[in-house]
Structure formats: structure tokens, C-alpha cells
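To: structure desk
From: M.T.
Subject: fold request, one chain
Message: Could you run this one when you get a chance? Sequence is below, nothing fancy, just the single chain.
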Amino acid sequence: MKTSWRSASLVACAAAVLALTTACGQESSPSVGSQNVGATAAAGDYGSVGAGGSASASPGNGYGADGQAQAASAGKLAVTQNAELGKVVTDGAGKTLYRFDEDTAEPPKSSCDGDCAKTWPPVPADDATAGAGIDKALLGEVTRSDGSKQLTVGGWPAYRYAKDAKAGETTGQGVGGKWYALAPDGKKASLASLPGLSVRTDPKLGKIVVDKNGMTVYRFIKDVAWPDPISHCTGACLEKWPAVAPVKADDTKGIEKKGLMGFTRPDGVKQMTVDCWPAYTFSGDQAPGDTNGQGVGGTWYAMSPDGKPVGAPKK
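Reply: Done. C-alpha cells follow.
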């Protein structure tokens, strides 16, 4: 019985993947205690709330009618699953807790006083308790310059952000390049902690692949996967649709392992594949969760965990 060229190619690709050597005829992916405080944050490091850096009075923002910070209790801490940041620590009212890069954890020390503390009210340690997902052994306190006790998580002083008006908001994430939501272990709940490739559930598209920064990964339907991956996005196209750099297979989560390897393009750029299909991001996506590249030109589609183009017309 004769075997078609394409069938033979498919078999060759599958065999290569199962052997975990080279994918689609290409090379495998390369390795890609408490103390007194008193320091004041430098101007511009924390983001103002109102004119002159003063907080405006509004219900639920942690400030009274006179604009003075109130020591709102922490209550029972919890872990909230944020679609963009992963696990984030919240207080008893559901408000996101943050940490400041200019602080230290060993020993605990706060560098946010004055106007900084108006924008980023310190979380009192007095009544903080550990809820589900919080290791109480990681909770502590630091004595501030005014003698008050501030909650620490993993040694890091904890703050709220005055611009977070509602429970679950994370508008303080990345402010000044120094403020980040707190993860349950005290580390930054940042996208940098994501695997090289993982899966996000989009409300419209379902399960799609995202890169280490949480940006949507796309497939170009004019590309070729077998017998070798070939990208037809070059030059100006590649500037608009940057190639996803290869990552190790063990630096992925939720992605099918078949054809999950890298290859070197003719232009020398190394690119990741899923099911042997070249993977890209889109320059038009400005923030994690954006899917502005979906359906562009009728040729670009978000990539599913098995490498298929999500929402592409059936042939």
C-alpha cells in the first residue's frame, strides 16, 4: 500500500517528538524579626492620589473626611486568584495588599512614610489573621517610625493602595516600577513568575496559550508545521508579530508536549513551536489578557494548548 507524502511526514514528526530529541526535524529547545523604621520614599516613587500627593476622601479608600489615613484593620487575610497575576493576598475586605521594592524583608523595614504612606496606607498588624491559603508562620510585624505595628508577609511590609476603590482591584501593580501585589509567600505576584508558556482561560476564546509575561500567543495559518516548521512571517511581519523564544519543555504548564520544541529560522531567529507550529505574540497587545491579534487579516488566531488556531474557520 502506498503512503502519502503528508502521512509519512506526520509519522516522522510524531516519532521525533516521542523520542524527545528534535521536533519536526529541528533542534531541541536550548536552556533558555522587626526593627524601627523612619526612611522616607523619594518623591515620585509611589504615585500620587490627588493634587500634591494628598489622598482624596472617598468611601472605602482607607481615608477619612479630613484626608488623613485611617488604620483600617487587616482582618482575615485571604488568597484571591487574579486572572493576570495569579495568587494575590487580600485583606478581610478583599482589598489587594502590596509590597515596595525599596523596603527590605531581612530584616523587615519600611521605607514608605509621609505622603508615600498616604498613597500606600500601611496595613496594621494588630488583628491580622491567616485565612485559607495563607501560612500564618509567614505573617509578622515591623515597628514603624510612629510606633505603630505594620503587617509583614514573608518579612515584607504590607500596604494597600488608595486608588484601589473596590475589592479585587490591582491598579497599584507596577506603579513606579517598584510596587507589586503580594503573593502568599511574600514574593511579588508578578507575571514574571509565570512559566515560559502556560494556559489562560479567556472569557471569549476559552483556553489559550500565554507566554511568561502573560501575553497571548498566536498562530499564523500560512505557516507550515510538517515535515519541518516553516514561518512565513518575516521582515516587517516579524516586527509586528514577534517570534516566541524557545523555552524548555519543563518550563511549561498545561501545554501538550507533542511538537513542543524550538527551531532556528532562516533569518537566524530561534522560535518556539507548539505541535510543530511556530508561535508568536502581537505588538498590538498592550497588556496581559489582550487578544487584539485575534482574527487579524483572517490569518492570525490565538493558539490553543494543543497548537490549534482558536476560532479559525474550518477548512
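Reply (cont.): Helices lie at 5-18, 115-119, 236-240. Let me know if you need anything else for the meeting.
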